Amino acid sequence: MRPFGYARPDDLMQAVHLGSATGPGVVDAPVQYLAGGTTLIDLMKLDVLRPQRLVDIGALAAGLERIEVSPKGLRLGALAKMAAVAEHPALRRAYPVIAQSLTLAASAQLRNMATLGGNVLQKTRCPYYRDTSWSACNKRSPGSGCTAIGGSNRNHAILGVDESCIAQYPGDFAIALIALDAQVELRGLDGSRSIPLATLHRDPQGRPDIETNLKAGEIIVGFEVPAAAWYQRSLYVKVRDRASYEFARASAAVALDLSADGVREARIGLGGMAYRPWRALAAERFLVDKPLTAVTALAAADVALRDARTHGGNAYKPELARQTIVRALLGAKDLPIGEVDHVR
Question: Do the Cβ atoms of 217 and 19 come closer than 8 Å?
Fold first, then answer.
């Protein structure tokens, strides 16, 4: 690990000013915010990230660790710990897909340390990004190429990619958030603003080293999810190589509003198969006013994956993704409202 400066601000605006040297959305910015640190420290040890200064915002947790479930919706502070949110009784009843996505992430030790804000910004586990002996990685060195395209890419993305990067977004929590139309609360030099979580992460666009649409110095301070009684009928399905402490090969966050005749509204977030948190909007529209059966669920999955692009080693992913989407849709359909805070 290389030498770095360290600052521990007393308030949020001081933190914003200390972090204003960061480039907007850039992966390897000279100033990095430190919260739980579970990903950042790993990448510094690997010499992938080389910040000149860490700004520790852990002391600000008292104002940014709220968990509020009300008739108006859900509000979560960005410094709330993953474990605390996953175990919150009211949240498990009203937004089970969020609790499930957190429970199925990482290990118990990491969930006790990791914050929600840091979790949505976690970096890819692409081995070519995390191993600096590979020189061609556009995330680390813009314009150098993408070794994964012709290399070992079994775990790489099939949605939202281009020739500059096929890295897979590794998170779970953001997949549930994007399915439920979550907003991200931000604080920066220009004050406060909220953006849809769907616009937080960028497509590669030839510059995968710019991962988000955050402005210089902006800090995620919270998340808001609108209220909807039918969010209780929601489910997170995660398929992985082993039963715990493993990233998704494919995952789906589903919420359903059903009538006797069929689907009033569906929400589908996809993980483990996309460059960024992915919303399957076309598949959602396809399901409206149709009965939810194995046939229509599979047809919706086909719609969700019609733009998938494979690169040899990940050619199995479209079929795995289809079956994961079908499993999530039919599993959510069968959930009785009020009895859905278990994990599948």
Answer: yes
Residue with tokens 């420290």: 41
14-73 pLDDT, tens per residue?
Answer: 999 999 877 678 888 899 999 998 899 999 999 999 999 999 999 998 889 999 999 999
Residue whose C-alpha is closest to residue 176's, from 246, 222, 123, 120: 120
Q: Cα(268)–Cα(75) distance, rounded to whole angstroms?
A: 21
- pLDDT score of 320: 98
253 phi/psi in degrees, rounded to 5: -110, 120
Q: Residue holding tokens 């993980």?
A: 271
Within the chain, how many helices (H) and strands (E) appear? 12, 12
**Residue 204 confidence (pLDDT) above 80:** yes
Contacts of 220 (CB under 8 A, 6+ apart): 78, 117, 120, 121, 184, 185, 186, 214
DSSP string of 2-40? ---EEE--SSHHHHHHHGGGS-TTBTT-SEEEESS-TTH
Cα 262 from Cα 106, distance rounded (Å): 36
Q: How far apart are CA 286 and CA 288, in angstroms?
A: 6
Inter-residue contact 281 to 266 (CB < 8 Å): no
Sign of CA dihedral 150, 153, 154, 157: negative
The whole-angstrom separation of Cα 179 and Cα 122 is 19
d(CA 188, CA 194): 11
Are 267 and 242 in contact by the 8 Å Cβ rule? The answer is: no
Cβ burial of 139 (10 Å; 0-12, 13-18, 19+) is: buried
Confidence of residue 344 (pLDDT cuts 50, 70, 90): very low
DSSP for 276-322? S-EE-HHHHHHHBTS---HHHHHHHHHHHTTT----STTTTHHHHHH
